[in-house]
Amino acid sequence: MAYSRGRCLLQYWLDHKGITQAEFARRSGWSQRMISHWCNNKRLMSVEAMYTAAVLLDIRMDELYHWQITAD
């Protein structure tokens, strides 16, 4: 069984935690533009970015995306 990433949930978590993209950019060191790209599914987050975001948001890495089962 394999999984593929679906829609990014970063904006959901930012809203849920009451954090703006600008504030998250300040805390994380990433540009607000990059965060916007992730939130709007224009770019995929790297594993390192996912880990850092998960730590900053106090969530699990797998909670940053919808995951879909793909055929083997």
Automatic annotation (TrEMBL):
A Pfam family the protein falls into: HTH_3
SMART domains, A to Z: HTH_XRE
One GO MF term: DNA binding
All residue ranges annotated as the HTH cro/C1-type domain in the record: 10-64
Signal peptide segment: none
Domain of life, per lineage: Bacteria
Xref: InterPro entries: Cro/C1-type_HTH, Lambda_DNA-bd_dom_sf
UniProt name for this protein: HTH cro/C1-type domain-containing protein
Source organism of the structure: Paenibacillus antibioticophila
